[in-house]
Amino acid sequence: MTRPPTAAQRRLVEAADPVTGRLRGTPAQLAALVERGLAFRHPRPPHDHFLTPAGHRIREAEPEPEPAPVEADGPAATGVFAARVGGEHPAPESGPARLREVRGAWQGLLELRRMTNTDGSTDRPCGWERSHLVQAAALALEAAGHRPAGADAGDDGYRVRETPQPEAVAVYAPDGEALRACATTLERAGWQAGEYTEPRTRARYLLASPRRV
């Protein structure tokens, strides 16, 4: 379980560059943020430290008088932002706080692309997204305003699921129009998506994978 940041660490996060997420601090302070999943050390010289999506999420959150309790299965427990893949049970809460979380996570992910893609591109998925396919695709959809499906089978919305194919996820939506809208969003986010039909159920779905070039 990842411990919440201390007050001093939170101040470092809040003082990060508002555009790039670049951090300043002592080597020990920066190493502690990396250990908590709030920062990463850039592999190229001068090896500066930058906020991760989780770090951006903490900076975007409203300040609280006391640290909130950490849930064993929540985003803070893993140090990684938990995008809604659709069908979660129980259904997670929504509202202004969630919108801030999503916005901060998406901006953090774009910065992660810029810093880790060799050409600095932000329109093409990065290595983190390729190793977290379902969560990355769900974040792109949620950040664009698409609504995830609820816990009940009849609660329409998108659902993102793993597939046997490497570097590909399946995206389901309640109708053809919603499915095409999801495809447009993913393509704008740097994914390639094609529409297919399941042979057994005849259900339409998207097969989406991160674009490499």
Q: Please, could you describe this protein's structure?
A:
Residues 1-20 are annotated as: Disordered. The protein has helices spanning 7-14, 27-35, 53-60, 75-78, 96-116, 127-131, 133-143, 176-188; strands at 39-41, 49-51, 159-162, 169-172, 191-197, 204-210. The radius of gyration is 18 Å and the shape is globular. It is built from 8 helices and 6 strands. The strands form 2 sheets. It has a 4-stranded antiparallel sheet, with helices on one face. It has a two-stranded antiparallel sheet with strand order 1-2. A hairpin with a 7-residue loop joins β1 (39-41) and β2 (49-51). Mean pLDDT is 83; it is low at 62-80. It has 213 residues and is α+β, with helices and mostly antiparallel strands.
Q: Short description, anyone?
A:
The chain has 213 residues and is of the alpha+beta class.
Oligomer: single chain
Structure classification: alpha+beta
Q: Order of SSEs, N→C?
A: HHEEHHHHHEEHEE
What is the strand content?
Answer: 5-15%
Total individual domains: 2
Share in helix: 25-40%
Radius of gyration in whole Å, from Cα? 18 Å
Shape field? globular
